[in-house]
Amino acid sequence: MAKLVLIAIMRTSIVRIMRSITRQIAWVAVALTVWSALAFAVHQHSSQDDSAVCQVCMAAHSTAPAHATPSIKPLFRRIVMIRPVASGAKQYLLGFLLYVRPPPAI
Prior knowledge:
Elements: H1 2-42, H2 48-53, H3 55-61, H4 89-99
C-alpha cells in the first residue's frame, strides 16, 4: 500500500515538473515571437544602400510571383435515379442473420 502511495506521489511530482517545463518553453517561444516581430517592424537603415542588401527589407518589399492557376470548367450531367426492387422480409432476415452473432452455447 505504501509503495502505491509513493508511486502516485512520484508521478504527480513528475507531472508537475513536466508541466512547468512545458509552460516555460511556451513562454520562451512567445517571447521570441514578439521580439522578432518588434525587431522586424522597428529596424532602420542609415542609407538606401544598406536597405538594398537587407534580407528583411527585400522580403518585405518583394511580391510573390503570381501563377495563374487554370480553372476547371464544371461538367454537368444528368443523373438517373435507380430505384431498388422491393425485396421480401425473408431477404432482410437473411442479411440480419449473417451479421448478428448468436449467444454462446453452454
